[in-house]
């Protein structure tokens, strides 16, 4: 059920993405929108409040020690798991590309501060 609801939301977002592209908005913005939705549904449960030390979204202090690893390493750790971070946040149905979009959104929230 959950997965189906998510698929429907992602399909809706694909529509939004096409709309944004048609309006001339950047692919980056569209990716962030999809990433935000993936995070909301799969990652916020830990990353909103810092459960088990999960770096809180938008908290640049908590991310500062991690950013140095580089985006690729962070994405790869989110996929395979790292310490108390379970592989794909425990949502094995998420694709690697979806994790990439989710991490992209998380990182965008630090840079915008
Ligand atoms: C069950 C709780 C939980 C969920 C759900 C979760 N995370 Fe995490 N995450 C953690 C914890 C805890 C850490 C810190 C791990 C450590 O360094 O010990 C972490 C760390 C990370 C890091 C930093 C990795 C690094 O190398 O420093 C990234 C990126 C990340 N999570 C992305 C995600 C994404 C994307 C999702 C959703 C698909 C997600 N997480 C869902 C608990 C969670």
Put the structure in a nutshell:
The chain has 113 residues and is mainly alpha-helical. The protein has helices spanning 2-22, 27-42, 44-47, 60-67, 71-80, 96-111.
From N to C, what is the helix and strand string?
HHHHHH
Give average pLDDT, whole number. Answer: 89
Helix content: 55-70%
- Main sheet, how many strands, which sense, barrel? none
Cα-atom Rg, whole angstroms?
Answer: 14 Å
Full CATH superfamily name:
Cytochrome c-like domain
Counting DSSP E segments of at least 2 residues, the number of strands comes to 0
| Ligands, deduplicated | heme C
Principal-axes geometry comes out as globular
**Strand-pairing-aware structural class:** mainly alpha
From the 3D structure, determine the CATH topology. Cytochrome Bc1 Complex, Chain D, domain 2
Per CATH, the architecture is Orthogonal Bundle
How is this fold's topology laid out?
Layout: H1 2-22, H2 27-42, H3 44-47, H4 60-67, H5 71-80, H6 96-111
Helix pairs in contact: 1-2, 2-6, 5-6
The protein binds heme C.
Heme C binds next to helix 3, helix 5 and helix 6.
């Amino acid at each position: 059920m959950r997965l189906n609801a998510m698929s429907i939301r992602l399909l809706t977002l694909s529509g939004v993405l096409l709309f944004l592209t048609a309006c001339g908005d950047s692919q980056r913005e569209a990716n962030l929108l999809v990433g935000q939705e993936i995070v909301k549904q799969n990652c916020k449960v830990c990353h909103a409040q810092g459960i088990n030390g999960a770096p809180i979204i938008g908290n640049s202090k908590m991310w500062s020690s991690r950013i140095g690893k580089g985006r690729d390493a962070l994405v790869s750790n989110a996929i395979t798991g790292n310490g108390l971070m379970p592989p794909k946040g425990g949502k094995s149905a998420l694709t690697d590309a979806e994790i990439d979009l989710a991490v992209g959104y998380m990182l965008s929230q630090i840079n915008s501060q």
